[in-house]
Amino acid sequence: MTLFLVQFLIVLVCIGLGGRFGGIGLGAAGGLGLAILTFGFGLPPDSPPITVISIIIAVITCVTILQAAGGLDLLVTMAEKILRKWPGAITFLGPFVAFLFTALCGTGYVAFSVYPVIAEIATDARVRPERAMSMSVIAANFGLIASPVSAVITGTLAILAGLHVSALDILSVTVPGTLLGCLAGCLFVWKRGNELDNEPEFQRRIAEGTFKPLKTQENKDETASGKARKGLVIFIIGILLVVLMGSVPELRPLWNDGHTIKRMDVPTTLQIIMLTTACIIMLICRIPPLSLDSGSVFKSGLVGVVAIFGLSWMMNSFFAAWSDLFNSAYRDFQNPLLFGLLVFILSAVIYSPAATAVALFPAGVMMGYPAATLIALLPLTCGSFIIPGGAQIGCVAFDRTGTTKIGKYVVNHSYMLPGLVTTLSSSVFCFLLAGILL
Length: 438
Prior knowledge:
Blueprint: H1 2-21, H2 24-40, H3 50-68, H4 71-85, H5 90-105, H6 109-124, H7 129-143, H8 151-159, H9 167-189, H10 200-208, H11 226-247, E1 254-256, E2 261-263, H12 266-284, H13 296-321, H14 323-329, H15 336-350, H16 353-366, H17 371-376, H18 390-398, H19 416-437
Antiparallel strand pairs: 1-2
């Protein structure tokens, strides 16, 4: 047991070290931890999470080509029109749009593009921007676990494949559960803080002349490019096929391997459909070759792959080496609250719902947790709001009124309470739905 605790401490230290750098740094720190475990303690390295990585690469490829076709820009334009139509409801509509577009694309890129719009619309409507901004960032994060093509859902699907879980099983819990959780978060911030006209910081900026009204202008381009519309329609059809074929086994092909009749598994089906969808978008939209890998989604997606590669390889090797201990001593440890608390705490350091799920959910499977419980725990992988990152810091800059803040002690920021309320509410709703539906 002492050796187990020492090695577990090494794993935690490497996670903390990687969390300071994020992205590629997290993957590199995972490699360091794996080196210590294998060369230092003689643990056999487990296989890298090839299936998970392959799925994520296939999805990244598809979304990157959609971006090259202009599909993501089209989504941003659609979002702006929705938000400007009802500016007084920005506290609810801003988070809803951030959630919806993130869930559709499986990436926070689109949501990040509409944050400045949300801030300016709230300011023009004299609604305290902090309310909409804080919940929009939180909602976008939770949209990842309601997306059939996000890394966290596809990774979880691969982990739970042995438990006969389909994408529809996961989404039937996470989509309504997180939507209700985000609604609870929006209700929490609805009247939070002073009204904008009574906010001392805003009044100070007006008096000093550091705030100048900036009337937002509606996008005058009413005609989106044809290839953007075609690409977006093809992409949506691809997503629907992923959900349909992943949920109806009879739609997937069979073959005889000489011993038994096998059916194509869900992860393989997803990869093929996503790559095929990408190719169809590329051909029909006639995308120039130089534009295929130049978008921001491609870079951020590959950074995520490296993080998951190193971190998951380390965690999988650690759990596999101590599988007997998990199977014997912890198999009856059926306390999802404590396991969920561990997931939430580490998610704040790992800073990625996908990397958190891929790193820790295999241990949950070893402990004997049913699929319904692990699916219900997915909201607890979204603790990245605890320590402010790119989206949080960026939205502080976007809010020119000064209501959205990072506190003196770092963790006392505008996103903390809305994030905690949304996380707790989403977890409760997901547990209730999992108990009913699964």
